[in-house]
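User: I'm putting together notes for a lab meeting next week and I want to include a structural view of one of the chains we've been expressing. I don't have a solved structure, so I'd like a prediction I can at least talk through. The sequence is below, exactly as it appears in our construct file.
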Amino acid sequence: MERLSGPGYLALDAAAWRRKREFFAASFSPCGLCPRCCGAKRAQDRSGVCLARKDVRIAAHNLHFGEEPPISGARGSGTVFFSGCTLKCLFCQNYPISQLAHGESFSIEQLAGIFLSLQKRGAHNINLVSPTPHLYHVVAALEIAVARGLRIPFVCNTSGYERAEVVAELQGIVDIYLPDLKYGPSESSRRLGLELSGVDDYCEHALPAVAEMFRQAGPLELDEEGVAVRGTVIRHLILPGQAQNSIEVLRAIASSPFRRAWLSLMSQYFPAHRAQGRPPFDRRLRADEWRRVRDEALRLGLDEGWFQEME
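Assistant: Thanks for the context. Below is the predicted structure for the 311-residue chain, given as structure tokens.
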């Protein structure tokens, strides 16, 4: 894959911007941006399953140093936390943002200003957290910001529950994809996805969506300072009592067209939100569970990336 000089959006001409605006405007209301395709009439300020309405809603925007090292770098990732989420994870650590939609409404013009402000503060990138319900606003704001001097990479930080057709329209806009892969393809993992995140079709959408992300961005590419400029990092959070699900996810990655994506294997689970009183999700991960999953990743050759050690 040929390496681009600068973010991909700098190569978009007026016709490309117009086509992308038109696609996301049509997908925004009635809403078909995520696999739920709930049809919410958001232009009339009616919310969808994700709680998103007409305006873009943001919980926080700041320099963030807690991402993977090539994303945060030395100066931080310019992170925008969007309110609402397409999933309803019972263990969500950010549930006031994702499921209660805490935050403030912003105009598209103000969102463009946020992007430029983060760049001015030294951010290595613009990191969009759970942006899918707001892609109409993001694309419109990005076009404004580019005209005013935005020049840093765009990161799409997502749950992985995406429509591949929508991801395809992000080509030329997103430089770095940071998706989760939460659940494997088996029937037991399908039931787990329904129990924990409210969807029983997670894997059937996530696998083709991540394949499309990797087709666009390829494996992670770093600059001379070790900061990501392009590529794909797949995150997987190991859940207590669910090592077999994690192994399924790893095997799906190893047999996929995106097996060269970098892997971020996370052990940071704790029983947040509605996980209390729901064994085994009401406890932390055990060391033996973590070792079992880590060893399988190494056996499969998925050793490019990060394995978060147990505390």
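A couple of points you could mention at the meeting. The radius of gyration is 19 Å. The domain at 10-307 is CATH 3.20.20.70 (TIM Barrel).

User: Perfect, that's what I needed.
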